[in-house]
Amino acid sequence: MGPDRAVSPQESRHRPARPPRGHWLVVGLLLLVFTLGLLVEGYTHGVLGESAVGIAQAGAGGTAAPAAVLHGGPVINAAGPGLRSYRMPRRTVALTFDDGPDPVWTPRILTVLRHYRVPATFFVVGAHVAGYPGLVRQELSDGGEVGAHTYTHINLAGGWQEQFQLTLTQNALAGAAGIRTGLLRPPYSSEPDAVTAAQWRAWQQAGRDGYLIVLASTDTRDWARPGVAKIVAAAMPRHGRGAIIMMHDSGGNRSQTVSALPQIITRLRAKGYRFATVTGALGLPDADVPVSTGGRLAGHALVLTQQAADHVVAVLAIMLIAAIVLTVAHTLALVVLARAHRRRVDRSWRSGSDWWYAPPVSIVVPAYNEELGIAATVISLLDSDYDGRFEVIVVDDGSTDATAAIVRRLGLPGVRLVRQRNAGKPAALNHGIAVARHDILVLVDGDTVFQPDTLATLVDRMRDPRVGAVSGNTKVGNRNGILGRWQHLEYVMGFNLDRRMFDMIRAMPTVPGAIGAFRRRALVMAGGVSRETLAEDTDLTMAICRRGWTVTYEEYAIAWTEAPASLRQLWRQRYRWCYGTMQSMWKHRRAVIERGASGRFGRRCLIYLVLFHVLLPLFAPIVDVAVIYSLLFGSPVRAVEFWLGFACLQALICAYALRLDRERLTTLWALPLQQVVYRQLLYLVTVQSLITALLGSHQRWQPIRRAGVFADAGPADDELEVQYQP
Amino acid sequence: MSPPAHRNPYPRPPSHARPAVPDPAGTSARQNGYPGPPRHARPVVPGPAGTRARQNAYPGPQARGRPVFTDPSGRRVRRMRLVGMCAGGALVACLIVMLVGLLGGPGASFIPWDGHNGGGAADAAGAGRARSTGPGPAPGTTPATPISSGRSGATRGGSSAPSPSAAPSPSPAATNRAGKKPPGRNRTPMPSSPPSHGP
Questions:
Q1: Closest by Cα among A365, A404, A180 to A288
Q2: Which pLDDT belongs to residue A246?
Q3: Band of the pLDDT at A600, cuts 50, 70, 90?
Q4: Contact A251/B97, CB-based, under 8 Å?
Q5: CA Rg, chain B, in Å?
Q6: Which of A16, A529, A606, B121 has the lowest CB atom count within 10 Å?
Q7: CB-CB neighbours of A389 under 10 Å
Q8: Sign of the C-alpha dihedral computed for residues A375, A379, A382 and A386 taken in this order
Q9: Which residue, among A246, A345, A435, would best test binding to B if mutated, counting the most B CBs under 10 Å from its CB?
């Protein structure tokens, strides 16, 4: 988005110095890190949140585990051919808590355990360990034992990710507490007789990997929140048997568990039970052993990664909300203001005067190597139904092709050709304005074609003496091909809606170089066309606005321009617009704090441009990322709905804009596709422009070889010539 | 009042708006009733324009400074390049950390559960555990385990060493249990909505 200028070969006049490129490597790396973080986060929480798959897998397979397992004790050593299972000694209980640690419930449970001086065993989910490493350290320092419960609570029943999951969990424990564990409680398991064949195979593998499988002999089913009394009752082993009692310290509201725990402990104690960790009760070696420094470092890396990934998603969410709010607010403001503008235009038609304001006009056409289009431009200008006198001044900016010859050969009355050595478009404009004889000047690009009524409608706006400049309505002439259609839509939807809005708030940032009318006094006050920026039209318009002139928009003054036909050309055009607009904004930045007309302009227009033409394009890709993320890890339906809603809103706005401009609605079909390539291209342009601005390395792009058209060109120009040699 | 007839004739098809061939005779130009060429409206040979510029009180470009944002000294480029390289290095470090965290880590099989039969608790050794069982229900119930009942938290203060009194009794595995549950019925719940991440 940005000012509205047709691309002209003029800008390729000087071989541009290579634009900065190194930053793309940094941007690419940033993207890679961001993507990896999102993948980690998506994997962790996508899998954690997705229960249907796990349950379906858990049910499959039938019971094919050895009877020794099905009817054996809850602690299983599945390694090797000789299967062993262990049963708790009589009147011994191991309290176990699954799915933690949880920042809310784990500390409460630890408080209860500490109060009763009871050790417990925690089967932790690796992702939570990485998220709350301090809690694991607390569990261990309280005399508890820690076992693995996979990284994201998957069902261990065959699958590519089991090894990965267990390694990650060990890694998380190493990072959090400097230990690794030999205990594993597979998720979706409870008591030994509920084992499926698939699970059993996976457990055997885990056993070969060195894990002792710890199931439960008493499942309190506290996760279903059956009530404190039921949890307590379920926890009681019968007949003085030993038991491994399964509870949960995470995965939802665990207040019932926390309340039941003291009762369980006191009642078991009254029955003569003692409490131990799993390995403690069985007289096995400690399951948690310290890891090497290397393992610790890798663990720290994982903890860092997981925590950063959590933050990445939080940042993503905030930026997404910001982007959506900005977009919607922008769109609504555009529509409301465009509607108001439309009404005002209708009113002014009804109350308009019978006569046309038609002062003598000078039309200045700067042309550099425009041999293809210049004849059409000049002829269309002379074809105008204008009531007053007008002259056409073609300024040949040192073209190397037949531009001048073509204009001369046309031999048209009312057309003057002035030539200068190649000095750039601003110089050509200044030259043309200087030799023009009338006080109303219309500046036209050399590849733009007017309609017969364009000149009359444009200049008629000058009737109001406060108006310093009038912008016309540029339209894309070459609409064949998808790129042309996209640009057509963008011109109608973006630029023209924007321009109506700017007209309403009396802060127009750009009168496009393709078509604009200026009062000579306004030009003189603005100091002429500057070459300090690459968007000389934006710069000029801002300067005029700041001096208190009204700059207005005439939608009926139509100019057909030729839009870039290739992505590469489009990139270059937009790069120039975007960078030039940034330059102009920076140049006129003081307007924001100034008083009077300048301050009014600065606070309205510049802030708008910063918000919607710089910041929004930088944030908007977040929307795409979020859609892809939720397609992969969240609910695809929601993502598609979101995207469709967005597309519909945009289609509606676009239809409205097309109607305002009396264009056919059939082009709308190109709109959905526009979201895929075109929009991203514009985002990248913004990044590129911003980096270029930051680097400040751009002077070589605009090698101005001073021509000496203005004989009194100062020494500064000679310096420039030296510096800007390509 | 309705708009004048010529005021709004569009859309004129773009293909027509632009004559493909220049009209050398200029006929179309003359139709527009332009009052005629002024003397110096003819194609003009390039000449010094400075004088005319001053007549118009038009400032021209001489008052201009250098292009916005540019830094001819190149100091900013160097500084930004440094910043960019630092950022790149930091990002590469990030990537390495992430990959190490995700792919590195301790290997498997580190606690010899079998070889440790008995471990430190000599009296408990071998006894109650670790019996490779054949299929079928094993005989019966276990004898009572010595219990260090009254003391709270027998093995408190570290799961490292089982307390001597906590000798597990020989408890042959596998008693057939009544009320066998169908597979997959008992499940631990999912930790719904992990609290660590944003929306």
A1: A180
A2: 92
A3: very high
A4: no
A5: 47
A6: A16
A7: 17
A8: negative
A9: A435
In angstroms, the separation between the Cα of residue A695 and the nearest Cα of chain B is 5
What sections of A383-415 are H helices per DSSP? 403-410
B104 and A301 within 8 Å at the Cβ level: the answer is yes
Q: How far is CA B93 from CA A174, A402, B87, in A?
A: 20, 57, 10
- Inter-chain contact B43–A407, Cβ cutoff 8 Å? yes
**Which residue is closest to A584 within chain B, CA to CA?**
B68
* Across A103-112, A206-215, A589-598, least confident range: A206-215
Which helix (H) or strand (E) segment is A218 a member of? strand A218-219
**Beta-ladder partners of A366:** A395
Q: Does the pLDDT at position B48 exceed 60? A: no
**Any idea where the domains of chain A sit in the sequence?**
9-17+320-723, 51-291
* Distance separating alpha carbons of residues A319 and A299, to the nearest angstrom: 30
A17 torsion bin: left (phi>0), alpha (psi -120 to 50), beta (else): beta
Residues of A in contact with B178 (CB under 8 A): none
Answer yes or no: A98 catalytic: yes
According to DSSP, the β-strands at A84-86 and A75-77 are: antiparallel
Contact A9, A369 (CB under 8 A): yes
Query: In CATH, what number does A51-291 get?
Result: 3.20.20.370
Q: Give chain A's mean pLDDT.
A: 84
Nearest to A660 by CA among A514, A498, A515, A509: A498
Chain B neighbors of A707, CB-CB under 8 A = none
> Has residue A192 got a pLDDT over 60?
yes
Contact yes or no for B70 and A699 at CB 8 A = yes
Q: What is the mean pLDDT of residues A617-626?
A: 82
Q: β-pairing, A92-98 with A440-444?
A: unpaired
* C-beta atoms of A283 and B134 within 8 A: no
Arch. (CATH architecture) of A9-17+320-723: Alpha-Beta Complex (3.90)
